[in-house]
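The freezer alarm interrupted the setup, so I double-checked each line after restarting. Inputs confirmed:
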Amino acid sequence: MPESTPVYGITYPCATDVIDAADFATFATDVDNALAILNDLSQTALTRPAARITGSVISLPTGVDTLATYIAEDFDNDGMADLAVSTSRLTVQTAGTYMVIFEAIINSATTNTSAAVAIAKNGTIEYRKKDGNTTNSLMPLLVAGLFDAVPGDFFTGLGYWTGTGGPSDIFVPVLSARMVNRP
Amino acid sequence: MEFTDVHDIPCLGPDDYPAVALYMQELANIIEAELLAQQTALDTFLDTGSLIWTQTDAQTASPATAAGFEDRIFFPATPSGGAGLSSQFNMQALPPLRGWYYVGGCTRVSRVGVVAGTIRALTLRVGTVGYDANFGNVPLPGNIELASFIDRIVTPDTQDFDNLWCGGTVFSDGLNYYPMSLSVFNGEAVSLDVDLATPSKLWLYYMGEANDIRQVG
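Predicted 3D structure, all chains:
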């Protein structure tokens, strides 16, 4: 009776077996299948799911977390961005742990007292960076966080502002996500 | 081995089957070992470990003091059973890998009472803070302040002083425990508390071995 290796199941004949061409064919096929497993792993390692989308200007009322929207895909190797369906999100296609970064510039107004950017998963804010401000100036902000995600989960970036003379604006929002670990 | 009738060309015969079988078995085992080594390397690269920890307890910083998660997060993950370690944190799955990690923290800070010009500093630190039972006051390698973020409220802002975030990179030698802490300092002199309310998060993931990442400068 043929036996096989414990991990990849590469089949080989035993000493008492009658050997014919089929044994060599089976052997080659098993090695081929094992190599295919490694090929898949290599491709995953080389092309971890990642995407980045960028936007332009979104009006930002005071005291309200406001979704940033996007107009361009800088890159996307896993179908996470679909701006024809939604202009505000990256949707996870492959389960894993993702590093998500959102950055934007909050515009100046008559008086800026604070500005913030945040990242939400499935509509719930999980990470936020807020900055106070005593001068009326542009406020570039960046927030980053790690998320466990499964297919269908989606990430969004939000802007927030308090002050007078608004509404303010979200300038050049950038939302990116990259898998750092498989599940 | 058998031979042809005229020219005595050798060819395999039934007596050679055991040798062929042994050869194929040996070949299969060698191929498997080589492939397994590559798969292990790829799996390590893809699953090097990450941790997302959410703090569910609110804490308070009295005026001119700090509050936070001192000595609550340790990596590598090998439990030591020392002070500051709870069963929850011992369950983290980060492997004790030598190399660089990217770490970050985020917390919500809500003010209590009406204040103006209040300074709050969020600090992410790796290393002992001098009172841990495992280490006493002995400084450890990597006892560094990774990142600090300072902000303030100005009159007449009526918003909660909202979430802060900071992050940085840290090196682990794969041997020692490195407590990782996230704390908020309340810089107001009087009449102010700072609440660390949910959700507060600390996270980290492995970036790579030291030999793979070059320090510049």
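Quick read of the result. The helical segments of chain B are 17-46, 87-90.
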